[in-house]
Write a structure and sequence with these properties.
This protein has 258 residues and is α+β, with helices and mostly antiparallel strands. Helix content is 26%, strand content 31%. It is globular. Bound molecules: biotin. The site of biotin has 19 residues, from helix 2, strand 3, strand 6 and strand 7.
Length: 258
């Protein structure tokens, strides 16, 4: 069971995680925090669940995570300052925070995959699902869902990308409380940089993205495009260089192409 006291002594954020909800089981931490009628509205609220009965991934995929072994949680953001042109940067800020936490605590070498997967040794260790609700054309609340595989050693099923966990990479179990605290401390720092130094976030992210400059395929709704991963634009969209043009990609699964 997650030990809140142990986590609380290690987290030193001002906003993120100061309102902390713990649940043995929910359908999906993202769905719960997105729903305004659940009455959790304060900036930086975290909902951590030991088990999700309907955990969701990107593109309506199911997110499987063994009970009590990993970190499955969501962060609520309500401050309008993140919801403008820089909205997409939240994907990079989040995946980068996970990468920094894994590097700093366990010296794991991470790789980032557009838009927001975190990989270790070519395998997926963390998935991120960013969702929002709007009133008219104004974003009202944003929920960042994070599924970080920590102490799970066995993964069964069919996966788009082979999963791994911190335990599988290190050969030993680790302290989930310490990892969550490090991740949130880092996330809050990076969030503050979103306004003052967004270029630094993009640079740190790109430094960990091995596919930039490489031949890739991007698949979206059964349609696959091939080209060179030229760069990211300032809003975080992928620029794909095809024969005679540069195409802006908003969504899709990216893989290395032969
Ligand atoms: C993906 O890689 O497709 C994204 C996976 C996101 C999973 C997390 S677990 C916590 C939060 N609640 C959900 O239902 N999904 C996200």
């Amino acid at each position: 069971m997650f030990n809140f006291e142990s986590f609380d002594t290690k987290v030193d954020t001002e906003v993120i995680g100061r309102n902390f909800i713990y649940s043995e089981e929910v359908e999906s931490t993202n769905s719960f925090l997105l729903n305004k009628s659940n009455k959790f509205n304060s900036e930086g609220t975290i909902l951590l669940a030991e088990k999700q009965s309907k955990g969701r991934g990107r593109k309506e995929r199911v997110w499987y995570s063994a009970k009590g072994q990993n970190l499955t949680f969501s962060i609520l953001l309500t401050s309008k300052k993140y919801f403008g042109k820089k909205f997409n940067l939240l994907n990079f800020a989040t995946s980068l925070s996970v990468a920094f936490a894994l590097e700093n605590l366990f010296q794991l070498k991470t790789e980032l995959k557009w838009p927001n997967d975190v990989l270790v040794n070519g395998k997926k260790i963390c998935g991120i699902l960013l969702e929002s609700t709007s009133q008219g054309n104004k974003i009202e609340r944003v929920v960042i869902g994070i599924g970080l595989n920590v102490n799970q050693a066995l993964f069964q099923g069919n996966f788009n990308l082979e999963p791994t966990s911190v335990k599988l990479e290190l050969g030993e179990s680790v302290d989930r409380e310490k990892l969550l605290a490090e991740l949130l401390n880092t996330f809050e720092e990076i969030l503050q940089k979103m306004e003052s130094k967004p270029d630094e976030i993009m640079k740190d992210w790109k430094d960990r993205c091995n596919l930039i400059g490489e031949k890739i395929s991007v698949t979206e709704e059964g349609n696959t495009k091939y080209g060179i991963f030229e760069d990211l634009d300032e809003e975080g969209f992928l620029l794909l260089k095809t024969k005679n043009k540069i195409e802006k990609i908003h969504f899709g699964d990216v893989s290395a192409a032969q």
